[in-house]
Amino acid sequence: MPYLKKVLPQPEPVDCRILTAALDLFVNNGFHNVSVHEVQKQADVSIGSIYNHFGGKEGIARALYDHLLNEIQDLVDCAKEEKITAVERCNEIIRQLFNYTETHQNIISYVFQPRHNEFLPDEPPICNSSPFVAIREIIQQGMDNNEIRKGDVLVAFSAIYGGPIRMINLRLDKIIKDPLPDLLDEILDCIWQGMLVTENNSEDNIGLHSVG
Amino acid sequence: MPYLKKVLPQPEPVDCRILTAALDLFVNNGFHNVSVHEVQKQADVSIGSIYNHFGGKEGIARALYDHLLNEIQDLVDCAKEEKITAVERCNEIIRQLFNYTETHQNIISYVFQPRHNEFLPDEPPICNSSPFVAIREIIQQGMDNNEIRKGDVLVAFSAIYGGPIRMINLRLDKIIKDPLPDLLDEILDCIWQGMLVTENNSEDNIGLHSVG
DNA sequence: GTCTATACGCTGATAGAC
DNA sequence: GTCTATCAGCGTATAGAC
Predict the structure, then answer these.
(1) Where are the domains of chain A?
(2) pTM of the predicted model, to two decimals?
(3) Taking the CA of residue A52 as centre, how many other CA atoms within 13 Å lie in the half-sphere pointing to its CB?
């Protein structure tokens, strides 16, 4: 009955309910502090279903991880399509990550906060996963084009993304009170122009918001 | 017999053996993947001793946390005494953190890697602990002195320390192969001078190593 | 595919001798 | 203070009906 499927509001499929519940619980309590029974209860399914779909708790975590890393990958790909220069691409990625932190807090929290290897054995460190490798490639191209100062790619990655990632963590811990998008221009200025007082920023802090 | 205590090599005291063993196991396997029995075995003490000294597994983790945060606090205090300007103090702190990452890897790993609130309930986020508050004060003073560009302190903290902290994480994950002290000058240049290509760094990457 | 009831290992913690 | 032996509860996973 495909007709009904289109007209009637469909309940969320079982596996989706499981993943949503698990994400919420994992992020708020930590993977190890959540039992399968709690996921089962919050998702309103039976334990049997969970083991059918994901094979266990670790299976849920792995499915979540893969799914959410793909979302980050899409975000990076999107920035690569929309922008041309390395600096613009980096800025766009940071902008989107900041937006996500406000609108999809659980997703960002799950990707950026936990030590995944503690519950996903033989998973490579997240900074070696495909979206982060793609980011490093963008930086490398920026160096080749003489946009970004040359040097060790990992150092440059840290210098460019370390600040924004730290802000994301501070925001998730509720230490930063303002929505991150409000702070975007300021951190981008810091990244590209540096933190020393110069002629450009000693009088006010307007700086070069549209740098790149 | 204080004389003997000074002359004969003393075996490490029990509580110290417990903490050392626990630190090693927690860092390598994650708090939740380590049982009290494993700590007991590696420390070569009985379970009873562990409960006598620390009251349980969480007690060990808390004692470790307090102890190691104090070490970081000492490091920050030391930098405040030795250096005068905010920039110099920040550089010194980062330098010492980089050194520690090579020589006391477990300590840095325990402080910088885990989500402590997952096993230490009602512990404030680490960025609100005293050494990190002290760092923010240094930054604030730097802004007041017109050394550091003015703006939100948390943004400035992220911009200055986010990169180095990211490098510490990358180093702990063995993604960065070189000892961090070898990369110190490069990241400091990036922090203070920014990542854009300018007259100062377009020809070579010598930059202003001794800035501040 | 979904569910309930059950099994069983492990872990944190205690009791009590020394 | 230190130790061994033991417990109680939880949490993962399975069996088997529907």
Answers:
(1) 14-206
(2) 0.93
(3) 9
